[in-house]
Amino acid sequence: MELVYSRTKTIQEDKVSGFCPGCMHSTVIKLIGEVIDELGIVDKTACVLGIGCCGLHMDYIAYDNTTAPHGRACAVATGMKRANPDTIVFTYQGDGDLASIGLAETMSAANRGENITVIFVNNGIYGMTGGQMAPTTLIGMKASTAPKGRIAAEHGYPMHMCEILNALTAPAYLVRTSCNTPQNVMKTKNAIKKAFKNQMEGKGFSMVEIVTSCPTNWGLDPLKCLDYIEEKMLPEYPLGVVRDK
């Protein structure tokens, strides 16, 4: 018989996912693991985890990782990479961690062109901490801190991180993908692989933004979340390559 698929060795075999049903963190973590396996870099990869649901990443993976203070993942990754330049260092962050409390660290690392990889999971809301409004929350989208929905005059507009970082000179690769369809899952994997290869080739800062869902805090079942991504999230956050030097 021909082997067509096997579990990536970067995922611990004795672990069962603790993510909410329909959460796409599981898919993204699996894709990262497959890429690390295929590139043969398991023994020299280190992940810096953001706070929140992203931090649960550590329960399932079999490669080195550490947790940064909330929002400081890019700063910690910078120190790790500069101290160990042969290590493949990447951050795994949500929208609140990367674009709110960690905005300064994200912008500064990108502006310096740090040779790190950033995996940015954008579901438009704070997950683990209670469904608060994030910088990426859509206009009209309800949150625990915006029960009437996000109102532009009161809360401002959603932040588009790929486009914001594209205003800087240094970043090498900025791309937005999703995991809402099988085709987009494969595009996400290819984007992650390219971002890691960029680091291996010393090209500098790469960020893969992945538009995902949060069924629990969106108040929708997993299937309806897929419709919401297609109908609401993607018009606000269009998929595609923003920069590729």
How would you describe this structure to a colleague?
With 245 residues, this protein is an alpha/beta fold. It has one domain: Thiamin diphosphate (ThDP)-binding fold, Pyr/PP domains (Rossmann fold). Helices cover 37% and strands 16% of the residues. Strands 2-1-3-4-6-5-7 form a 7-stranded mixed beta sheet, with helices on both faces. Helix 3 packs across helix 4. The N and C termini lie far apart (42 Å).
Rg to the nearest angstrom? 17 Å
Largest sheet: 7 strands, mixed
- Segments where pLDDT lies below 50 for 5+ residues? none
Total beta strand runs: 7
| Strand and helix order | HEEHEHHEHHEHEHHE
Strand order of the largest sheet: 2-1-3-4-6-5-7
Tell me the CATH architecture.
3-Layer(aba) Sandwich
Strand content: 15-25%
Q: What is the CATH homology-level superfamily?
A: Thiamin diphosphate (ThDP)-binding fold, Pyr/PP domains
> Mean pLDDT across all residues, rounded?
93
Name the overall outline.
globular
- Number of helical regions: 9
Portion of residues in helices?
25-40%
Main CATH class: Alpha Beta
Overall tally of structural domains: 1
SS-based structural class? Answer: alpha/beta
Question: Could you give the distance between the termini?
Answer: 42 Å
Reported by name, the CATH topology is: Rossmann fold
